[in-house]
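Comment thread on ticket #2218

A.B. wrote:
> Attaching the input chain for the structure job we discussed in standup.
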Amino acid sequence: MSHVSLIPPLQEEEIRKLRIGDSVTVTGIVYGIRDATQIRIFDQGVEPPVDLKGSVCLHTAPNVKKVGNRYYPICVGTTTSTRMDRFTPRLLERYGVRAIIGKGGLLDASVRAMQQFGGCYFAIVGGAAALETTQIDAIEEVYWEDLMPECIWKFRVKDLGPLTVAIDSHGGNLYAQVQHEARKKMQRLLEELSGPDAKSKLQN
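C.D. wrote:
> Ran it. Output below, let me know if you need it in another format.
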């Protein structure tokens, strides 16, 4: 396991070097996207107003304030990614997105797409939005403001993270790995509790 500093736009070879368990920080442009953003793109057929090739996307609908014509971050948290899972393969294939930052992981179709097209999923620490907000230097642009707060947000970040590579481009899936180990431990515990000395173990 290693630590890598990334500056988007990312190339496929950068992503292919990452493995689950690695930590990364991101400096540069990160695009905030959410359900309504992707519904407009994929269900309504509206092309995004930005070039997402090589980009890092953050699953968020941030709390912001507007002063004049500019937006300032108040709290930029991250939402659960599985709700947007159905869009992920097309984000990678059609628009060349290289990495997604979110919580809770993605489903099998997205894991396969990351392996096929060269993408990664970076897990962010849940409940640490206050810290993560301090790593956002500026909101440079906001697109599709009518979807507020589920617009496309162009964040300029500095050392966003540390993030954990939870799904890599080789089929590695930290969530599946943890679930597998948990099931093994559960089975072992059940076997111990059902053995001849189970009663004494419970009493102890």
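A.B. wrote:
> Thanks. Noting for the ticket: Strands lie at 3-6, 23-33, 56-59, 63-67, 70-75, 99-102, 120-123, 136-143, 152-167.
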